[in-house]
Design brief:
five-stranded mixed sheet; mainly beta; single chain; Immunoglobulin-like; binds copper (II) ion; 462 residues; 3 helices
Length: 462
Amino acid sequence: MPIASSHSSRLVTFAVMALLMSPGCNLNNAVAPVTSKEPVEVTIVGSDFSFTPNSLEVPLNRPIHFTFENKGQMAHDIEIVGTSLVLHAAKGASSKGEYTFTSAGPYKMVCTIPGHKEYGMDGVLTAGTAPTGDSSKAVVQLKPLPAGIARLPQPVAAPPLTRSSTASVQIDVETKEVTALLDDGVGYRFWTFDGTVPGPMMRVKQGDQVTLTIKNSLDSLLTHSIDLHAVTGPGGGAKNTQIPPGGKSTIQFQALNPGVYVYHCATPKVAHHITNGMYGLIVVEPPQGLPEVDREFYAMQGEFYLEGERGQPGLHDISWPQLLDEKPDYVVFNGSVGAIADNRAFKAKKGETVRIFFGVGGPNVSSSFHVIGEIFDKLYREGSTEFVTNVQTTTVPPGGAAIVDMKLEVPGTYVLVDHSLGRIEKGAAGYLVVEGEDSPTVFKPGDFDPGTADNAHDENGH
Ligand SMILES: [Cu+2]
């Protein structure tokens, strides 16, 4: 499928609140007097793949006569999300419909034909005066959550290799688009490798000949691909794996360099595919393997940019302008708020040494990775095979990774964070629960005196 107009040109259009030939409206004041009940004529032109205009205002409580003209080379439609209005038009045709808005606010306009919205057929219709408030974001009408929606399953760390020699290795992976929970009550259509965020952890040995077959599910709406940072070769595999729904592709590579590498989808717009969850880690073990530890865990950080408010119940879409502004609504580990919490928390025992393979999918935000109450005894910075010792916090950039090893001397709950701590409010927290007997010589919670009520303050200083 060809990719039409660039987002930048769309954004320019977006900024211009275009208003159409309508007897009750003018360009300076989009909202007509409420006293008039005359219908308002609105024409929206669809092409491959945009709406013109893709941003418009209409008055409340007046019938809006919509005309949808399709000037594209294929069938298109337009749905005003949250209303009953859907207009279909074959190539070169047009269709008409009427709707009266009684609730003010922005409504999304999308083409419902698979893939068309993602390629640019979306926009916003504002009915009446958009609600104002402290929030910089407008309240967007969201679709309800589909029945039975749940969190994505958690991927686990691939086990250490037991062989000492190199081998020919076959890896199979499938790209899947899955609607799941990003937070309680907050749904999102994730794009994934194998249905998890991050995708499966791959593990090979330096010198291995790897054959990777990537399949794109027939249920997908879009083309997907894979770029593995462990690959030496143009595009890391991306050029040869741009696979439409139902297709598959095979690449071969030799794992020349040991280390921990990110892989990700590299189909334009790449940042869209990454933010939606298309990233994972491939570990290339050195010939002697990595030092043995008692347990290994796998976590990756990524951001989500939503239309609508953080926490607003319903099925959210991506906000592309927010992604470009690098203002995420959610910063999370393993694809959702609380993905590494409760019964999904990492679990270990006092005295064990644990390892976390930690990567950042991004697409925009670096992590200041830290485990509250622990020190990285060994840190394999940037996913390198050499380690440094005794580190508190490490920077992991988008498209980068690290390994941290920690000996667990004291039982309790340890919190994995991005030490840009505002992001905890956006979901960036995971939990490592360590069981065992107290270790008073290492850490002893002393007596605690809460003081008097007069001295107590809440977080606002009251
Ligand atoms: Cu993709």
